Structure prediction request, 392 residues.
Amino acid sequence: MVYTDTRKTLEILEALVAFDTTSYRSNLDLIDYISGYLAEFGISSHRIFNEEKSKANLLATIGSGDRGGILLSGHTDVVPVTGQDWVTDPFKLSIAEGRAYGRGTCDMKGFIACALAAVPDMCRANLAVPIHFAFSYDEEIGCAGVGSMINLMKSNGLNIEACIIGEPSSMKPVTAHTGKSVFKCQFYGTPMHSSLAPEGVNAIAFAGDVIHHLNSLEQAAKSFTITDERFKHPHPTLNIGKISGGKAVNIVAEYCEFDVEYRYPPGSEADYLLNQLPEIIRTAAHEPMNAKSPSASASCQQTVAYPAFKSDFNSPASLFARRLTGSNTDIAVNYGTEAGLFQQSGYSSVVCGPGSIEQAHQPNEFIDLSELSKCDAFMSALIAELSLVEVG
Ligand SMILES: [Zn+2]
Prediction:
């Protein structure tokens, strides 16, 4: 077995962390870095840009062959550090007590660093099947960037045996997670001095009526309960996590908005809120508001949507990850990943990456160095396995 030097992984991780790729910023400098690194080994990178050309996915292939390859998937963006209490500079890797600290170390530049550090060995290995890298943008704002890359993979007829989505799972194979959609609901009333309240249209009051309906919708969603003990809540759940509106207690509120999240386990009803919400908004808010004042209105729009993920225990991706990690788990998690999108497009997928999800998105985010070693060993085992195919 070939062992990758963890120092190389840390060196690359240090470079990756130094790029502030918070989702609202460009990731192009980081993509340039990766593509420059790959070019040193004669590997060409394909960039798939967003419309504004401010961000890009990167797709690259090592080796060739007609047989199905293995795809290593990671997202390059990170969540904001704003308002978080960091002891160290979040964009400077610092190592202490067997941990590497920095934004994205765990979620999920650590995995990308392990994959990149293994490139020299991958190139030397005379692979029987190719290894693909698929590094995306905008995962943290609802898996919004990876779609164009998956479309390209499909239109190019990319033959893939298994996708490994390297989100933090403590290197244990994860075969199911919930799906999610988020809607923004907006209410435009007519302001008025509160002494004339009956003559205005109070945006907050109508938002409240809609929320009341959503509360009963959540109860009704329990009828979509699935039988999968791995999920603590085996039915769709709703959460109104954010609301704002109004200016003062003596003014009829002109505006109100809230965000509502719908989360559901695989096999449950994905589109319940999508199907119900427009009608609720129309009857409980828009029509009565509009009847009082022609300028008053209410509407909703979907801002995030990614599918739930479920892979068979004996799917090619699950078998592959279990063989390589030696971990025979069949875990379901409550966080979302791009796995559902790959799987939905016909690519057998599994989530398996270094670090614990508990450290993701947190201030002083870190990854245990032992997790990076495990992932380096995973890459070595992967190379050995793919080289063996040719021998066998
Ligand atoms: Zn992530």
About this structure: The chain has two domains: 6-176+308-391, 179-306. DSSP finds ten helices and 16 strands in the chain. The longest helix spans residues 369-391. The mean pLDDT is 94.
